[in-house]
Amino acid sequence: MYPQPYLDYLIQFHVERDYFECHEILEEYWKSAPSQERQPVWVGLIQISVALYHQRRGNQSGAIKMLTSAISIVKKHHLDIEKLGLDSANLASLLEERLTEMKNDQPYRSLSLPMSAALKQAYQEACTMQNHPEHRDSDMQDAYLLNKHSLRDRSDVLAERQHQLEMREARRNNQSN
């Protein structure tokens, strides 16, 4: 009923509190669709996790910018939000409340997305299958979780980038010969 990457996003969001991974999971899923079929609702969910990642790290301006954009998407695409099993009105209200907290420099606290009964059941089953609890608060002492964007292993990305550069260089050399 719900795409597995979405359920994985929800587990990362509510259990691991790995908002960086939330972004990675949904961005890959969103980009897997042909460009003309990409749904903005996924971008909104990505932006919610990015906003919380920034807020948790103390980057209020980045958090405010992302959350403002996410709220706009949630309101504009409220029917799509509902189809994903989220209460769009409640979600918009929660996000606006969080935005006010950010603007008032209040500290980060974990946030839960308001799920319908059907989504909650699918989420609980996914948690059980992956041997996860249904909820945990952020571990504010986990430096890797808080700074994942700068601490993660990117060797595969860098290797692929180098490979692509070498291939372009080889094509240029072949064209000039």
UniProtKB/TrEMBL annotation:
Gene3D superfamilies, per database record: TTHA0068-like
Membrane-crossing segments per the record: none
InterPro entries: DUF309 (IPR005500), TTHA0068_sf (IPR023203)
Chain segments annotated as coiled-coil in the UniProt record: none
Domain of life: Bacteria
Identification of the protein by name: DUF309 domain-containing protein
Organism of origin: Brevibacillus fortis
Lineage summary: Bacteria, Bacillati, Bacillota, Bacilli, Bacillales
